[in-house]
């Protein structure tokens, strides 16, 4: 609507008000204005208002009916979608068309049109005077009211518009995202529900400790062990003297075992080869009496090795669907054999699978490495189950060797293996209630020793000078067990690995160096070498000299009047349930607790973890938990060093950007803009090449998305142009983050190098009371997940509930 029309219509309203007093008694507004002139400056509106007074005489007043018709004829919304400026120009070109007006009902039911309501205070003022009083404030007020009305109408009646092609393409994507989000939420919900169920099912046995633990269970149900599938021949033939040999399936299976270790250290081990071929010939003689295979050197296992290499590659190339099938089959086995009912509670079974046949590896220089492990059949297995429970069915065509109902033991099944004539067991899982109770009692026994240790030490120190040789040997052995955490050791046969402990030390295992140094050098458990040079008391040194006097020679026992049975029987007199093994657990836990006191309270998480690992390492060294340096150890260190250099160079680049923004910071921070040692031109070149490759890869991914969306593809130059210069605050924050990262990587490098020959896991799991670790975490605000993984947290459920004040 034009300004002239607006002013004309205002004038008409004034005349109507003067001639019709009923307007003052307005009761209801039926319709609001949809048009306004907000886009016109106030100055123009005022000038137009004054200039439009001449048109008042031209307006012919009509009766009520006529006014109604005019209002109806102009109530169309045909131009509602047009911009405001277009509507104004249109109204200027047609001065005779009145704009859409408000309809007001009076008490006499007469409908009139109106643009702006007059205030009651102005009803008695003359038209000429009212025309002169056109205050700026009122115009501004009108503008505000008009704007307000438009906003309210826009909210009530949102404008419908047609979607663009891009929006239509994105619409299904949004739906997919919503669907994916819904699936994720469902998965999270299921996991949360499963977690809650697991928490509900936890048997809190530690809240109700039993004094008598001789009865392990009242009822026990399980499915027995799972047997590996029978061997199926593949038909690939090994060669002997260049000629392919047809082997019986059982002989072929044994040949397969060796073919799979070719190219490894085992395949090159002479002892391994010798033991394998000896057992291979036994199987050949039994199944193929006339077989020509006589010498190992003439055997060619290459066709078999190549066949298994192909299988390995096929396994790597398996599709997701094929992997899912295998995963489902494994899960079905797990669901069937992996659970037991103990006193009505569902408990997880640990190693329910019977070991498949193969070649024995052994640790260290084991004399039986390469020996054939026979296939285990149900006839060799003893099942332990509840008396009223259903006996699990053995594989078809077989029967169980024996079925017992012994509730004083924790194992579910047992059999004897042929290599070392040792017994193998199926136990409940590490996190089960029975295993947890066993661990708890073990560490409580070690804590109890703390009350007696001073008295026991005083006793064996006095007995070091005893006149009776047997007593003096026992005291000396106990000194080594206590101070050096040596295992007690048992005598072994000639066909078993030559590993020894304290009580089974021989003449050659101990060497003396005046004045008081003793050197130990022997194979410990798992054929791990124990080498230690220690300084001992003068009396202990003197005793070892006596124990090595002639006629003793190499091969003779050092403690010839002592064994573990005699030693443990004596220890029972000092404390109920005390054995030589308890000393090892006590010393490991006590040493660990003392070493942890070196932790700095206000240090970073990584520094605290380094202190924890160093304490753990001291225990591992004490207990001789060693390992060989891994083949890729140097590669691992190099990768960490490269990460450190990369972070340092990135920090250097960030510092340069900071100095570009504020060069004055160079005085406060002289390290800004300085290259770290080790960053060479070659390193920078390699870094830039890698970064360029990353950018290209990212750009390729982004362009693929843009192509699908119908957008223009970008180049590296376009991406660089779009980059915004980060703020100084953001750059300084980035600099600090990189500095922290460098420090963490440097600590990791130290930790990795220090632990290269030490196995921390064994001592942490088996010898250190887990409550010490939990209390340390709470005291120094270290997340327990950094110390115990999920399986260990499950194993030590009973331990993680202690507070920070726990003391071993």
Automatic annotation (TrEMBL):
Biased composition (Basic and acidic residues): 140-157
A cellular component annotation (GO) from this entry: nucleolus
GO biological process, one term: DNA topological change
Zinc keyword on record: no
The reaction(s) this protein catalyses: ATP-independent breakage of single-stranded DNA, followed by passage and rejoining
EC number: 5.6.2.1
Family statement drawn from the similarity comment of this UniProt entry: Belongs to the type IB topoisomerase family.
Protein's name according to its UniProt entry: DNA topoisomerase I
């Amino acid at each position: 609507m034009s300004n002239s029309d607006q002013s004309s219509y205002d004038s008409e309203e004034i005349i109507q008000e003067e001639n019709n007093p009923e307007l003052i008694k307005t009761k209801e507004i039926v319709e609001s204005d949809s048009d306004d002139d907000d886009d016109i400056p106030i100055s123009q509106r005022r000038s137009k208002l004054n200039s439009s007074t001449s048109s008042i005489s031209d307006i012919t007043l009509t009766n009520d009916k006529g006014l109604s018709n005019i209002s109806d004829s102009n109530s169309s919304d045909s131009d509602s979608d047009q911009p405001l400026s277009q509507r104004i120009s249109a109204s200027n070109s047609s001065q005779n068309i009145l704009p859409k007006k408000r309809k007001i009902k009076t008490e006499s039911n007469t409908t009139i049109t109106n643009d702006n309501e007059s205030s009651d205070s102005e009803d008695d003022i003359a038209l000429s005077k009212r025309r002169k009083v056109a205050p700026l404030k009122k115009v501004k007020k009108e503008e505000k009211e008009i704007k307000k009305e438009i906003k309210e109408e826009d909210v009530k009646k949102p404008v419908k518009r047609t979607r663009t092609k891009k929006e239509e393409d994105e619409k299904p994507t949004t739906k997919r995202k919503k669907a994916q989000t819904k699936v994720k939420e469902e998965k999270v919900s299921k996991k949360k529900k499963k977690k809650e169920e697991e928490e509900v099912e936890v048997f809190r046995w530690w809240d109700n400790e039993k004094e008598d633990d001789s009865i392990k269970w009242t009822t026990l149900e399980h499915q027995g062990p799972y047997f590996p599938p029978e061997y199926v021949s593949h038909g690939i033939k090994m060669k002997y003297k260049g000629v392919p040999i047809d082997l019986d399936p059982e002989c072929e299976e044994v040949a397969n075992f060796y073919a799979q270790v070719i190219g490894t250290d085992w395949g090159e081990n002479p002892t391994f080869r010798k033991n394998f071929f000896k057992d291979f010939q036994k199987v050949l003689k039994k199944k193929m009496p006339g077989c020509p295979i006589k010498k190992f050197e003439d055997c060619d296992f290459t066709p078999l090795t190549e066949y298994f290499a192909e299988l390995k590659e096929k396994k790597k190339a398996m599709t997701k669907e094929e992997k899912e099938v295998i995963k489902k089959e494994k899960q079905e086995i797990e669901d069937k054999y992996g659970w037991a009912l103990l006193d009505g509670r569902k408990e997880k079974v640990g190693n329910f699978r019977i070991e498949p046949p193969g070649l024995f590896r052994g640790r260290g220089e084991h004399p039986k490495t390469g020996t054939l492990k026979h296939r285990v059949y149900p006839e060799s297995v003893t099942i332990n189950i509840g008396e009223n429970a259903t006996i699990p069915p053995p594989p078809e065509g077989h029967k169980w060797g024996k079925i017992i109902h012994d509730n004083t033991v924790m194992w579910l099944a047992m059999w004897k293996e042929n290599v070392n004539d040792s017994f193998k067991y199926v136990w409940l899982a590490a996190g089960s209630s029975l295993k947890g109770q066993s661990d708890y009692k073990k560490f409580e026994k070690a804590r109890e020793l703390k009350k007696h240790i001073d008295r026991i030490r005083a006793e064996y120190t006095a007995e070091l000078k005893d006149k009776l040789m047997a007593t003096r040997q026992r005291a000396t052995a106990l000194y080594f067990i206590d101070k050096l955490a040596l295992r007690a050791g048992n005598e072994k046969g000639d066909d078993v690995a030559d590993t020894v402990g304290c009580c089974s030390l021989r003449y050659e295992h101990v060497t003396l160096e005046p004045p008081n140094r003793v050197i130990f050098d022997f194979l410990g458990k798992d054929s791990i070498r124990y080498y230690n040079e220690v300084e001992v008391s003068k009396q202990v040194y003197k005793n070892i000299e006596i124990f090595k006097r002639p006629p003793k020679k190499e091969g003779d026992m050092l403690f010839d009047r002592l064994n573990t049975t005699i030693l443990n029987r004596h220890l029972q007199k000092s404390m109920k349930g005390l054995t030589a093994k308890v000393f090892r657990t006590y010393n490991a836990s006590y040493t660990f607790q003392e070493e942890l006191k070196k932790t700095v309270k206000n240090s970073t998480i990584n520094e605290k973890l380094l202190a924890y690992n160093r304490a753990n390492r001291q225990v591992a060294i004490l207990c001789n938990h060693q390992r060989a340096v891994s083949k890729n150890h140097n590669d691992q260190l190099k990768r960490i060093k490269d990460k450190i250099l990369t972070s340092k160079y990135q920090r250097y680049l960030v510092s340069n950007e900071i100095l570009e923004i504020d060069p004055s910071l160079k005085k406060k921070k002289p390290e800004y803009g300085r290259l770290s040692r080790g960053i060479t031109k070659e390193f920078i070149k390699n870094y830039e090449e890698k970064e360029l490759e990353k950018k290209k890869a990212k750009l390729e991914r982004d362009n693929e998305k843009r192509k699908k969306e119908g957008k223009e593809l970008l180049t590296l130059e376009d991406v660089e142009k779009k980059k915004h210069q980060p703020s100084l605050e953001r750059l300084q924050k980035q600099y600090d983050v990189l500095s922290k990262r460098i420090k963490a990587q440097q600590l990791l490098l130290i930790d990795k190098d220090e632990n290269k020959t030490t196995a921390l896991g064994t001592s942490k799991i088996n010898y250190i009371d887990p409550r010490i670790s939990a209390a340390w975490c709470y005291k120094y605000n270290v997340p327990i997940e950094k110390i115990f993984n999920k399986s260990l947290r499950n194993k030590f459920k009973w331990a993680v509930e202690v507070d920070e004040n726990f003391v071993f």
